[in-house]
Amino acid sequence: MARVVVGLSGGVDSSVAAYLLKQQGHEVIGLFMRNWHDTTGTLEGDCPWHDDQVFAELVARRLDIPFHYVDLSQEYRKRVVDYMFAEYERGRTPNPDVMCNREIKFDVFMKEAFRLGADFVATGHYCRKAERTIGGEISYRLLAGSDPNKDQSYFLCQLSQEQLKYAMFPVGELLKPEVRRIAEEQHLATAKRKDSQGICFVGKVDLPVFLQQKLAAVRGNVHEILPSWRGYAHAGDEGRTLDEMAAPYRYTVRDGKKIGEHNGAHFYTVGQRKGLGIGGRKESLFIIGTDVATNTVYVGEGDSHPGLYRRALRIERDEVHWIEPKTAASVGETRRYDVRIRYRQPLEKASLIVREDAVFILFDRPQRGIAAGQFAVWYDGDEVVGSGVISM
């Protein structure tokens, strides 16, 4: 049996993960990480980190396992929060949860676990790990969780073979109701505790308020683009290159009429509906483009507006990550995958096309709200094969 350090977060999933590992005969150690101190922008009623630590410690006592605490807030700010600010400042939409897993939970935290003599590090993620042999060596596969409503494999899309080698996901085969049931049967303090929401370790926040710690609020104009805009006339596939299909629509203030004002283009993302404060419409207004250089937000009315949809996206070659590099597609190769561009989005059929300068994903049908900075993740069945940051 192995010595396994479990990242006890104060939630029910990691609590049951620790219980299951102990039942399997492993030597289990609980380790709580504090990653965020600031409450700027945190919405009222959101549980602070202190409550999380109390619940984590109660679970460790109940399971009779050692409990340790580590403060990783400096690394978290540098590797996750600063990345967030930088991406929003560029007018892009980051995913801090993906970065938190790659940079904190399975890097800095994993190193802390090794200091405690860990053979493996376990978390409460709803995903699975499997092994296979490639060229006589063991290779690790990342698989979707068995619960389709809780699958978190999207958030782990940037993990490497080295990180997966030492990772364990004890609840990955379970459904969420089963996890709750086990927690209640074992009288774990977290059995009925609500799942955390919002930014990883920060919690649910008022995003503009949170971002204003570093990004100033600057008044700018909101311009409406009509569905009849000339740029949509050639949105079909015929005669268009991959670069053209993947390029976001480029608007200028002359292309639409000013209908309101906003507090900073960097606070908004493509596909967003809430937060504009402009009413009196038959259908909702959606963000279809932002320009941080001119501090302009472009909107369209209705969720069928052509500005919301594109057939393709581009990922720069140095932003492409393959879970198993030995299986990576080569330049000139085209492969078929199931792809998602945001968590909980249904998987969509697409072709992944590798060129010298970039990787393109060409969807079978137009996709809504493709946003630069987000992660596109491609699957083969229930296996996460790779991912990349959407550049445009």
Provide a descriptive summary of the structure in words.
- The protein is of the alpha/beta class.
- The chain folds into three domains: 3-210, HUPs (Rossmann fold); 215-307, SH3 type barrels; 309-389, Elongation Factor Tu (Ef-tu), domain 3, CATH 2.40.30.
- Helices cover 23% and strands 29% of the residues.
- The chain contains eight helices and 18 strands.
- Strands 5, 6, 12, 13, 14, 15, 16, 17 and 18 form a nine-stranded antiparallel beta sheet that branches. It has a five-stranded parallel beta sheet with strand order 3-2-1-4-7, with helices on both faces.
- Helix 1 (12-23) crosses helix 6 (176-185).
- The chain is globular, with a radius of gyration of 22 Å.
- It starts with a strand and ends with a strand.
- The mean pLDDT is 92.
Task: Spell out the key features of this protein.
392 residues; alpha/beta; Rossmann fold; SH3 type barrels; Elongation Factor Tu (Ef-tu), domain 3; nine-stranded antiparallel sheet; five-stranded parallel sheet; globular
Short account of what is shown:
This protein is of the alpha/beta class and 392 residues long. It has 8 helices and 18 strands. 23% of the residues lie in helices and 29% in strands.
